Automatic annotation (TrEMBL):
Keywords: Membrane, Transmembrane, Transmembrane helix. This is Uncharacterized protein. InterPro entries: MmpB-like. The chain crosses the membrane at residues 20-39. It comes from Streptomyces acidicola. NCBIfam families: morpho_MmpB (NF047320). The keyword Transmembrane applies. It comes from the Bacteria.
Length: 42
């Protein structure tokens, strides 16, 4: 890749959306684990 090539980065809105979705996925996974632990303790 040459220094003169344009950067192949997605626009800021897309990057923000991807970050939000990634965080949401982590939160959903943690919630599932927590729910399994709570249900398993009964």
């Amino acid at each position: 890749m040459l220094w003169s090539d344009p950067e192949n980065e997605p626009p800021k809105e897309l990057r923000d959306t991807q970050d939000m979705l990634r965080r949401l996925g982590v939160l959903v996974a943690l919630a599932m684990v927590l729910a399994m632990l709570v249900l398993g303790m009964r």
